[in-house]
Design goal:
Layout: H1 3-21, H2 24-27, H3 32-47, H4 59-77, H5 86-92, H6 97-113, H7 120-133, H8 139-148, H9 164-187, E1 200-201, E2 207-208, H10 216-220, H11 224-234, H12 241-244, H13 272-278, H14 283-299
Antiparallel strand pairs: 1-2
């Protein structure tokens, strides 16, 4: 019965997304940090509209909202439409819309539980709990379905006697489910090996693993071409052989990883680290590498590198 709601809100979110991304024509490049702020202010409100009442029991309906979210994040990072999904969220510190909507719905449930027993919304909740006990459709029944259908399912407590703190713990479980799922997607992908075991620099000079974070390179690297190059390398969205020859074409099948050789030396797999740091088959490449390290050492005298 809420199908039209999803369609309308997805269309409005897409319209706002296009308006934001159209800023590139005026300013040249919308930085990820500012793009994220505009996304949360203008696109996200449409994606989460009605989430307290309309629970996402139909994947095809929430899929309309997920499509808008993915398209916006990919265009903001300037990567292609076939890129891996998990890094879109981990790099920009944005929660997948499916998880965001259910966490907001649970926040609403926490509000309902805190209301007086004679409050209309409390009476409606008790009625929904009775429907759930009878195995009939209702808000509480839908809530169980949504939590069960998450990528990493979450089991709710008995809601008949649940307290506000119980719901807070449930929200924390859903939040952990989201982070665990995103991190598992990265850890299990051989294409994202550069992100495995990554430590994020914190204030005070310490480093620690963080799943959702607006990554420092998206903020500190202000040159568009440089930022896009780093992003594409880390997210395996580049044209080096290790990625380009992974996908087959109509006339040529994809190659095993060990056969995706460097176009210059033809003796090693053409990966980002090989091309940037190891390969010696090109004088031009060696000169660029030497210039780069000279600039780095001039700015950071204590740095050491051993490239053989």
């Amino acid at each position: 019965i809420f199908a039209e709601h999803y369609t309308v809100k997805a269309a409005k979110a897409r319209q706002c997304a296009h308006a934001i991304l159209g800023v590139n024509r005026l300013v040249g490049s919308l930085p990820p940090k500012e793009g994220r702020v505009l996304y949360m202010a203008r696109v996200d409100p449409h994606l989460i509209s009605g989430c307290e009442v309309v629970l996402d029991v139909m994947s095809k309906h929430v899929g309309l909202l997920e499509t808008v979210q993915l398209q916006f994040l990919r265009r903001l990072l300037r990567i292609n439409g076939r890129s891996l999904i998990a890094p879109l969220f981990t790099e920009l510190n944005i929660v997948p819309v499916r998880y965001r909507r259910i966490m907001l719905a649970l926040g609403y449930l926490q509000y309902v539980i805190n209301q007086p027993a004679d409050h209309y919304v409390q009476i409606a909740l008790k009625d929904s709990l009775l429907l759930f006990k009878d195995d009939r459709p209702g808000w509480v029944t839908d809530l169980h379905v949504v939590l069960r259908n998450l990528p990493i399912p979450v089991t709710p407590p008995a809601l008949e006697n649940a307290s506000s703190s119980d719901i807070k713990m449930l929200i924390d479980k859903v939040n952990r489910s989201a982070k665990t799922w995103l991190q598992s997607q990265i850890n299990s992908s051989p294409r994202l090996y550069l992100l495995h075991g990554r430590l994020e620099p914190m204030d005070g000079g310490e480093f620690r693993p963080v799943v959702l974070w607006l990554r420092h390179y998206l903020v500190l690297v202000t040159a568009l071409n440089h930022r896009r190059a780093i992003t594409r390398l880390l997210l395996s969205d580049h044209n080096l052989a290790v990625e380009a020859q992974r996908r087959g074409t109509r006339y040529k099948p994809g190659l095993p990883r060990e056969q995706r050789l460097c176009r210059l030396c033809t003796s090693a797999v053409e990966t980002a680290e090989h091309v940037l740091l190891v390969c010696k088959a090109s004088d031009e490449l060696l000169q660029l590498r030497s210039t780069f390290f000279s600039q780095v050492e001039a700015k950071f005298p204590d740095i050491e590198h051993r490239i053989h």
